[in-house]
Structure formats: C-alpha cells, structure tokens
Amino acid sequence: MKTFLLITAVSAFLIGCSSAIFNTNLEPYAKNKYRMIAVKEYSFQQMITFQAESLGGVSANYCQQNLEDPKANQSAIIDNLKTKVYQRGGNGLVVEQCRSSKYRSCESYIECYGSAYNVPED
C-alpha cells in the first residue's frame, strides 16, 4: 500500500511539472558564447591566403569608471569585437590594434580595432 501511494504521489508530481516553464537569463550568455566560438581570430597574412571577403572595420572599448567596476580587460574587448563581426555575418577577425590609455574620467581604458571578414569554410 505504501508503495502504491508513493508511486501515485511521484506520478502526480511529475505530471504537474510537465508543463512548467523555467525562465533564466542563460539565453543572452549562450548566444554571446556561440558568437565568440563561431568567429575565429586570424592574422592578416592568414586572411590573404584564405581570399576572404572584407566586411569592414570593427572597434570596441571599455572604460572602468569606478574602482569598484571590473578593470578593463583586453580579452573581453576582443570578445566584443567577435560579437560585432558575427552581427555583420562574418566568421573571421583580424585584431589590428589594442591599446590602453588615459581617457577622461576612466580609471582604466582599453580600445581595440580590427577588421571583419567572411572566411570561406571548407
């Protein structure tokens, strides 16, 4: 009898949860991770051998306004460039320059420039 009640209770719980919807903030994170994986970083010399289509320049920057804010990070800026390349329909990035500098009221500041490409895939 106890087994029957346990099975009935578990079944009722599972049936009740079958239409449950779980909302998370994972979707934007997952999309950005996919974009960063889909866009590869290349050198200019590699891009010449691929005969890739140029999609124009991209740039990104970050200003740490307060000491409590995350410090400017070059790899995060390059990830931002990859997202911009992906949004243009590209899959290749050549980072031309990244530099740290003093900028207005920023505790730390980094800006990066690059070129977006559509690299033919094999």
Key traits:
122 residues; alpha+beta; four-stranded mixed sheet; 4 strands; flat
Radius of gyration: 23 Å
List low-pLDDT spans: none
Helix content: 40-55%
Enumerate the strands of the largest sheet in spatial order, edge to edge or round the barrel: 1-3-4-2
Main sheet summary:
4 strands, mixed
Order of helices and strands: HHEHEHEE
Q: Mean pLDDT score, rounded?
A: 82
Note the gap between the termini.
Answer: 63 Å
Characterize the overall form: flat
How does the helix and strand content classify structurally?
Answer: alpha+beta
**Share of residues in strands:** 25-35%
**Helical segment tally?**
4
* Record field, number of beta strands: 4
Please provide a written account of the structure.
The chain is α+β, with helices and mostly antiparallel strands and about 120 residues long. It has four helices and four strands; from the N terminus they run H-H-E-H-E-H-E-E. It has helices spanning about 1-15, 25-40, 45-50, 75-85, and strands at about 40, 55-65, 90-100, 110-120. The chain has a four-stranded mixed β-sheet with strand order 1-3-4-2. The relative contact order is 0.21.
